[in-house]
User: Which sequence fits this backbone?
């Protein structure tokens, strides 16, 4: 983990509130911030840590708060946001209902932007979607175009209008991580995703991705680790990254100073080791 920013007890640590902090990405942003020495609050509907980290030592350092970005009094939302120096929003929604997608991606984040500004936040960091994916909206069903992507666009517009140059956008395409697989939202494990990232980062696949149109090209872009995305979010919130628009895996990994994915190499090494052991066993049996 990176060195703590709070080197002296006389210096107050930076304060960051994570909207959607109980989610897949948000919870890992909380972890990255805690490890960097920040004072961290999470705002989510549940107001509780997810099961994967509920018993982790760092989790007890997060102030888990419950609030709904689109319902309830605005005063209660502002109270939950607190008085941070920066706000990170990992809030998003998937589904098939256009209005629900607009609410979960657009309205919710616009309300988060408003509350962040009113409570005195200096920076707003938003996890959006890769521009190449957004530009391929026409390849997808209408509810993605009119709901998901329009909602993301509305959120970015609100953040830019309110925070100007202090608004930062991270734009991943496909995010992988954790231990499991899922279909809705689509998700693959850390080991599998790392292998895919390493493979698609090779020059031949980069050339193919540049050549193919729309979602065909997107399919050949390397995905990004949720831990790399979280680290990049934390560094942006703490003022350690100058770039304000981190579009795609390469930009996010660079901001996070993340090592190259090695999942494919590790899998090949595993197969080689297994083959070697099997060969040795066979030779022993033949003696």
Assistant:
């Amino acid at each position: 983990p990176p060195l703590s920013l709070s080197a002296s007890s006389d210096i107050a640590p930076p304060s960051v509130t994570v909207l959607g902090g109980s989610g897949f990405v948000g919870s890992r942003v909380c972890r990255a911030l805690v490890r960097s020495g920040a004072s961290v609050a999470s705002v989510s509907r549940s107001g509780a840590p997810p099961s994967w980290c509920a018993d982790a030592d760092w989790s007890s350092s997060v102030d888990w708060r419950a609030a709904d970005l689109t319902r309830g009094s605005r005063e209660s939302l502002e109270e939950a946001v607190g008085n941070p120096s920066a706000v990170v929003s990992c809030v998003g929604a998937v589904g098939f209902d256009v209005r629900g997608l607009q609410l979960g991606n657009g309205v919710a984040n616009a309300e988060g932007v408003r509350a962040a500004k009113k409570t005195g936040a200096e920076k707003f960091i938003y996890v959006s979607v890769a521009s190449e994916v957004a530009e391929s909206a026409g390849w997808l069903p209408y509810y993605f175009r009119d709901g998901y992507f329009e909602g993301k666009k509305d959120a970015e517009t609100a953040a830019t209008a309110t925070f100007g140059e202090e608004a930062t956008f991270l734009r991943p395409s496909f995010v992988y991580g954790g231990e499991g697989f899922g279909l809705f939202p689509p998700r693959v494990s850390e080991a599998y995703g790392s292998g895919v990232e390493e493979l698609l980062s090779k020059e031949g696949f980069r050339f193919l991705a540049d050549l193919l149109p729309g979602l065909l090209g997107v399919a050949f872009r390397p995905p990004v680790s949720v831990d790399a995305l979280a680290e990049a979010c934390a560094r942006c919130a703490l003022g350690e990254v100058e770039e304000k628009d981190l579009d795609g895996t390469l930009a996010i990994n660079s901001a996070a100073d993340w090592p190259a994915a090695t999942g494919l190499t590790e899998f090949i090494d595993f197969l080689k080791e297994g083959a070697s052991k099997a060969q040795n066993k066979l030779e022993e049996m033949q003696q």
About this structure: Residues 1-8 have pLDDT under 50 and may be disordered. The longest helix spans residues 263-286.
